[in-house]
Amino acid sequence: MTKVNRIGKIYGKLLVIREGEKSSSNKITWVCKCACGKKTIVCGDNLQTGNSTSCKSCAMSLRVVSEETREKRRQNLLRDYTRMNNP
Hints:
Blueprint: E1 10-11, E2 14-19, E3 29-34, E4 39-43, H1 44-49, H2 56-85
Antiparallel strand pairs: 1-2, 2-3, 3-4
């Protein structure tokens, strides 16, 4: 298997800066800089598959936003259902 040079490539919010050390499972890792400015180490497989697209802080903030959005949708659905059943 040939080694892919990912330096300078962007995956989601991550910019690959340099190659990191091999992981405990002997996989290539990459040091990346997130759009928020934080650095993170990501396994090359996760960059390629799209499993890693931001640092943990940004991923958590996206999760909070999606949970808030889901709650708003649930409330709107409940409101609409109530209006339909109570003319």
